[in-house]
Amino acid sequence: MSTNQEYIELFKEKEGILDKASPSFMSEIRHDAMENFSKTGIPDKKSELYKYTSLQKIFEPQYSMLFQPSKVDFKVEDIFSCDVPNLSTRLEVILNGFYLKEKVSLRKLDNGIIIGSLAEAQKKYPSLVKEHFNKYAGSGSDGLVSLNTAFALDGLFIYVPKGQSLGDALQVVNLPMTGIDTLLHYRNLFIMEDNSSAEIVVCDHTLSPFRFLTNSVTEIYAGPGARFNYSRVQNEHLNSNLLTNMFIHQEKDSQVKSNTVTLHGGTIRNNTNVLLNAEGCDSQVYGLSLADRTQHIDNYVNIDHAKPNCTSTQLFKGILDDQATGVFNGRILVRPDAQKTLAYQTNNNILMSDEAKMKSKPQLEIYADDVRCSHGATTGQLDENALFYMQSRGIPRKEARLLMLYAFAHEVIDKIEVVPLKDRINDLVNKRLRGELSRCNNCSMACGDLPLPK
């Protein structure tokens, strides 16, 4: 039996559990998603979008799947405490694909902001969820999104009403922690109404040494005038593979910034899809990848300029060593009505070894005539002339290399607006480049001291 057929049969087997766990409107969405998956399956290298990333390989192990929250004997503060100086955050945890509640699974603040479990939000606020859920990811997406839509039971829900601000940054920690190889699906839905604002910091970690494959989908709605900043730090072990799918829908005069820093992991594929659906939108998508050993990091970005007078910026950088491989595929689509578009895309990479490899594919599709668009990609090694100059000024070669790499990476890190977080990421990247950072050195997790969830 093929891997695709195994998931189709598993869905049939667990259909009753899935339907029972969610309100009735979700059943139709799940069934439509599985029908789409039965046609598309897991993307393979025959697909142009996955030409350089073998998903079949990471789906091969016999993963277990969870259909209910894990029972834990510890509190959130026992497993994680933010060690970013001067950064005030609210902490939310997704444990094995389910929202980890302390006292309540969903809370509504005095200003109308709602934060908590997506599964609970589907039950308490069905109209609000139905208005946005799966409207931006869509049932016609690739097989990864369909598989997530069919199986994901929970995740994080955030709703910020008109004119409101989330205030302190919200820190979301995604934690795979089981005693067996596990495939995890979770779904996030963030709704930003008119002129609202929020700052989200997402941290991907691993609390046990087993194989994990995480397939997540995040939908973001940014209403007119909304401001949304999204920072992500991916820091897992080599047996932990990440597939992230982010869909951003922007309305008039909204601004959404996304910055993903990848430090550690096995195979990582980040899909970012942005629709600029009204005039005055601003989209900024940044990424920094540091890869060594046998890591594989693939970033795909698709920005759809559907309306006039919008701007978009893509800046992705990669530093690859040993046998690491990287991929960047960035697409800018400018539709016929999208006059006065400003769109820029840059991908720069440094190879630190002869065995490291990078594939870069910048794309422009322009169907309007009054636009300013540019794209460019470079892949090479450190400038020997610059290294020689620094050595002639008394800087040891090893230190000179580190300084050049740090300067190269800093351009992306500098786009992070929260200063304490920016300073902490600078420190992490500096340690990572020096080989001083393991996947657990950047947080206060008590990984080895906790009992596995039941």
List the helices and strands and how they pair.
Blueprint: H1 3-21, H2 24-40, H3 55-59, E1 64-65, H4 76-79, E2 89-95, E3 98-99, E4 106-108, E5 114-117, H5 118-124, H6 126-132, H7 143-151, E6 156-160, E7 169-175, E8 182-192, E9 197-204, E10 212-222, E11 227-235, E12 240-250, E13 255-264, E14 267-276, E15 282-291, E16 296-305, E17 311-320, E18 325-334, E19 341-351, E20 357-366, E21 371-380, H8 384-392, H9 397-413, H10 419-434
Helix pairs in contact: 1-2, 2-7, 5-6, 8-9, 9-10
How much β-strand is present in the residues? 35-45%
Helix count equals 10
Question: Rough shape?
Answer: globular
Q: State the end-to-end CA separation.
A: 30 Å
Oligomeric assembly: single chain
Q: Name the average pLDDT.
A: 92
What number of structural domains do the residues give? 1
The helix fraction, in percent, is: 10-25%
Low-confidence stretches: 440-450
Secondary-structure-derived class: alpha/beta
The profile of the biggest β sheet is: 11 strands, mixed
Q: Total number of β-strand segments?
A: 21
- Provide the gyration radius in Å: 21 Å
Gist?
The chain has about 450 residues and is an alpha/beta fold. About 25% of the residues lie in helices and about 40% in strands.
